[in-house]
Amino acid sequence: MSIRKAIIFSAGLGTRFKPWTDLHPKALAIVNGKSLLQRNVEYLQQFNIYDVIVNVHHFPDQIIKAIQDNKGWGSNIVISDESAEVLETGGGLLKAKALFDPAEPFLSLNVDVLTDLNIHRLLEYHLQHQPLITYGVTKRNTSRNVLLDEHYRMCGWRNNKTGEEKIVIPGRTLQPYAYSCVVIYQPEIFSLIRQTGKFSIMDTYLDLAAEHAILGFDHTGDKWVDVGKTESVAVAENLFA
Fold this sequence. Notes:
26% of the residues lie in helices and 28% in strands.
């Protein structure tokens, strides 16, 4: 089995990326001559994923024009239009439901994250363990952690800044990991999501984790950078040519 379709979450307002995002979408921010969107489209192509959904909200016309002008950088790109209201990752995924094959697993990633995580290895792990959801994790400093047991099953979440913690499977020894924003879903996720409107996909994970296996895949040591802030561009340019 292979992954044939992915969604790149590109609708965010990019408030941490001002002043660029006062006039442009964050998806078109440049790292070493290529936009974040182009880099993620080409990243997916390395793993033979050429069918891509891109959700848009902030300056959507600029993203659509870039895709059209560059012929999707060689991929078949379909737009999920959130110009009326930004729906966050969970709401954005749910809105795009009709654009996915109802019988096939699929992938999501965030446009402002660059990584060299091997998607083939992520899929092998997913197929071996058969969870509802598998996402990449690493051991790195972060403001929020997913909390995994010794089998890498998600049991909770913690905000390290506020101290807020949500434990959905109690009584286990938990380790904190950083969420990598590269995720494989089984298609039945859509029939299980209970949230509506605007919501984070993390809310869905926490809602479902007690009843359905949601696993982390540890890829510590791979390149990974959140290009959510302007000062992160220099970091990204050192990691990605």
